[in-house]
Design brief:
The protein has about 160 residues and is of the alpha/beta class. It has five helices and eight strands. Strand 6 and strand 7 form a beta hairpin. It is globular and about 40 Å long.
């Protein structure tokens, strides 16, 4: 099915996946899957294999952290590792403005502009990862290596 058959944000993710040389594995669910726990239950996988796309604000710019659904990001540790100022959780309006996607459905790709991205290295323990695909009903599967490649993310522990 053509990406144009999907809603804007999901179509953007589908286009980005194929443009970046990844398979379009977007799955659309009947029910919303806005949390890692809901997604894991719908997929029948470990919550740690869910890749949360969390947007933070760092000195007025977006910072996307791709974290395991089983992890709580330690923003102080991340800021120390990056050698930066305070990292704050972004407001829903900030997230939408920078990703074109709503909180709970943010994907690692498909944003209007490239966003600096960090990748939780604990995700490498899983053969298949699942990430949001632009809205609350859609996700896509991908390997850690391919997620790293298509996002250009900096790998690091985030907790």
């Amino acid at each position: 099915m053509s990406p144009d058959a999907f809603a804007g944000p999901v179509a953007n993710v589908k286009r980005a996946l194929t443009a970046l040389g990844a398979q379009d594995t977007v799955t659309v669910f009947d029910a919303k899957v806005p949390t890692a726990a809901a997604a894991a239950a719908a997929l029948g996988c470990d919550v740690a294999a869910i890749t949360n796309s969390l947007v933070f604000e760092l000195e007025g710019t977006p910072l996307l952290i791709l974290a395991s659904g089983a992890a709580k990001v330690d923003v102080r540790k991340v800021a120390d590792r990056l050698g930066t100022g305070k990292i704050r959780r972004a407001s829903p309006e900030f997230v939408l403005a920078h990703t074109g996607q709503e909180v709970g459905g943010v994907a690692p790709v498909g944003h209007p502009e490239k966003i600096r991205t960090l990748l939780d290295e604990s995700l490498s323990a899983h053969r298949v990862l699942w990430a949001g695909a632009g809205d609350h009903n859609s996700m896509f599967s991908i390997s850690y290596a391919d997620l790293h490649r298509i996002t250009g993310a900096e790998e690091m522990p985030v907790r």
